[in-house]
Design a protein that fits this description.
Layout: E1 13-16, H1 20-31, E2 36-39, H2 51-54, H3 70-73, H4 90-103, E3 110-111, E4 115-121, E5 127-132, E6 138-143, E7 145-148, E8 155-156, E9 172-175, E10 189-193, H5 197-206, E11 212-216, E12 223-224, E13 227-228, E14 231-232, H6 233-238, H7 240-243, H8 247-262, E15 283-284, H9 288-293, E16 297-300, E17 303-307, E18 310-313, E19 318-320, E20 323-326, E21 330-331, E22 368-370, E23 375-376, H10 381-395, H11 404-422, E24 431-432, H12 434-446
Parallel strand pairs: 1-2, 1-7, 2-3, 7-22, 9-20, 10-11, 10-20, 11-16, 12-15, 23-24
Antiparallel strand pairs: 4-5, 5-6, 8-21, 13-14, 17-18, 18-19
């Protein structure tokens, strides 16, 4: 290991990632005068929002726009420009995040093109972080605290196993991680698998270029327009009248509003959800139902097999296809962290549930925090800012955490509630409700 090149002196805190969450964390630390360094493996700040413009592999694509209103997606201290539309495109968001980093004076403390290789706990003495720069030179540094803000859409999750015959499919099989633009499939016949956010976005994008676009849906999800009653749904979720409702009243309100706004999903040839709204992630889209009604996207059931150039579905039909795009989600992966952190064994499917006190603190690893490792129904920015402010106060010694056993009890109680509402899945363990969680974070800061 060679640490001979010039690097900033060891800081109190290492922030990993310079996307929306990392920049919020850096800003909160800077406001409190906490010494920190932020490590970002990409050539610039902005996280997934800068990837489409850079042509890089990642969960973003060139048609990507915000699903949340700019008023709630911009930082509270630095609103998005008035001239931007309500739902800006990725390049606008990337430029905004860069301008925020400049405005907040964060750039001198951000090391770009610097990948974190490992984060090792040194007992109660802090953390050793090994990073690698663009020249391949590794550097080892000690920090008192580490904030992980690197996002959770990191590893493509393909079906395991893939449909029968996949190995002999004559067309192209790819994950949404490798999808960039619909024009790459001009004139082709494409099957998109999955009805989450990326699935419906990609199907709508493809339908303007491909000869035929099919959307294969195994399980119905609730499709929610970006706006209801002329108001962005995340602005509704932020309204006082909404947060005065009980959960049952909120659910009933949305179910009735969806019937008025779009009718039943089965009328579009899509499966009806087998669960009430807010019992699973919802899909925000203004386009997909319209594209189906205009014949641009053809709904299909689950794939049962691939055979040469054909795709067969569970209803007995088959279609010629040149490509299959699996929009089947991502696995949370933090390969630089100790094994089993932050996902613990035993709960949930796959890798296990994320186990963090107040969705932020690793109870058994003093000095390790996660910012942005949540999945809200609504805009994430206010939550991320509140998390970052709380962590900054902890780091600064202004707030004391409870004992580890108390934190573990809170984690267990939270995961039990999540399992009752959403079931046992890894992704469910990071679900939060915007209003209640924001109030919880604010109470922690006032404590």
């Amino acid at each position: 290991m060679d640490g001979s090149h010039d690097v900033p002196p060891a800081a109190t805190v290492c922030v990993i990632g310079a996307g929306l969450s990392g920049l919020a964390s850096a800003h909160a630390l800077a406001l409190r005068g906490v010494d920190f360094v932020c490590l970002e493996r990409s050539p610039d700040v902005g996280g997934i929002w800068r990837q489409p413009g850079a042509g890089e592999r990642g969960p973003a694509y060139r048609s990507l726009h915000l699903n949340s209103a700019k008023q709630l997606t911009g930082y509270a201290d630095f609103p998005m420009p008035d001239e931007l539309p309500l739902y800006p495109r990725h390049s606008d968001v990337a430029a905004y995040l860069r301008s925020f980093a400049e405005w907040a004076g964060l750039l001198p403390r951000i090391e770009l093109r610097t990948e974190v290789v490992s984060v090792r706990q040194d007992g109660d003495a802090g953390w050793t972080v090994v990073s690698r720069d663009a020249r391949g030179v590794e550097t080892e540094r000690r920090f008192a605290q580490v904030i992980v803000a690197s996002g959770h859409n990191t590893e493509a999750a393909l079906p395991d196993p893939l449909p029968t015959g996949s190995e002999s499919f004559a067309g192209t099989i790819l994950h949404s991680m490798d999808y960039q633009d619909g024009s790459d499939f001009a004139g082709q016949r494409v099957v998109v698998v999955g009805m989450g956010a990326s699935g419906v976005d990609i199907a709508a994008d493809l339908s303007r270029h491909a000869a035929r676009t099919m959307l294969s849906v195994r399980r119905g999800l609730h499709v929610v327009p970006k706006q209801l009653f002329g108001t962005s749904v995340d602005l509704i979720a932020d309204a006082p009248w909404w947060n005065e409702m009980s959960f049952a009243e909120q659910r009933r309100f949305v179910e009735q509003a969806l019937l008025v706004a779009r009718g039943r999903l089965s009328d579009y040839g899509l499966p009806e959800p087998d669960h009430p709204v807010f019992s699973s992630a919802v899909t925000i889209s203004d386009e997909i139902l319209s594209r189906i009604r205009h014949g641009g996207v053809i709904p299909k059931p689950a794939i049962v097999a691939l055979d040469g150039g054909r795709v067969s579905f569970t209803d007995g039909t088959s279609e010629e296809a040149d490509a299959v795009v699996f929009c089947t989600g991502f696995r949370m992966a933090f390969p630089f962290l100790p094994a089993g952190c932050p996902a613990g064994p035993g709960r949930g499917a796959g890798q296990g549930a994320v186990e963090l006190y107040k969705r932020v603190v690793a109870a058994d690893r003093p000095g390790l925090y996660f910012v942005g490792l949540i999945r809200p129904v609504g805009s994430i920015t206010r939550l991320v800012e509140a998390q970052a402010r709380w962590v900054a106060r902890i780091v600064d010694g202004d707030v004391a955490l409870p004992p580890a056993d108390v934190m573990r009890e809170e984690i267990s109680a939270y995961l039990s509630r999540i399992e009752e509402r959403y079931g046992r899945t890894e992704g469910a363990s990071i679900q939060v409700d915007v209003g209640p969680y924001l109030r919880e974070l604010r109470e922690l800061q006032d404590a």
